[in-house]
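thoughts on my protein:
***
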Amino acid sequence: MFCRYGYLIALLCSGVALAQEEPQKSCGAKLAAIEAQLTEAKAVGNQAKANGLAKALEAAVAANCEDDPLYAERLAKVEAKEAKLVERQNELSEAIASGQSMEKITKKRQKVAEAQAELHQAQAELEQ
């Protein structure tokens, strides 16, 4: 019985972790998702769902959706990642110029690659 509860707790915790990692969607993406669901509901003849989605589209999302704070937050993240990448590239250049060991240079190259990946991720989120 304990094992069953342990599994349930682990499942709930993993769901919470996944929900926290999911990036926020822009207003345009939210509108597109609702419109796609609305089209699907109409296609299968689910009028009740279509009516609910139409109301959500008109009232909640269209009237209250504002991209500016979300865009500004994502832009700031991209700028921070760009600065981090420049810092990592400078550290690598200094390590090479000072003749540090290949092990240290390799670690610094890995950090540059990680910073590049983080920047690309932030840029992708900005474009959503």
In short: Confidence is low (pLDDT under 50) at residues 1-12, 14-22. Residues 68-97 form the longest helix (30 residues). The radius of gyration is 23 Å. The helical segments are 2-21, 27-43, 47-64, 68-97, 102-126.
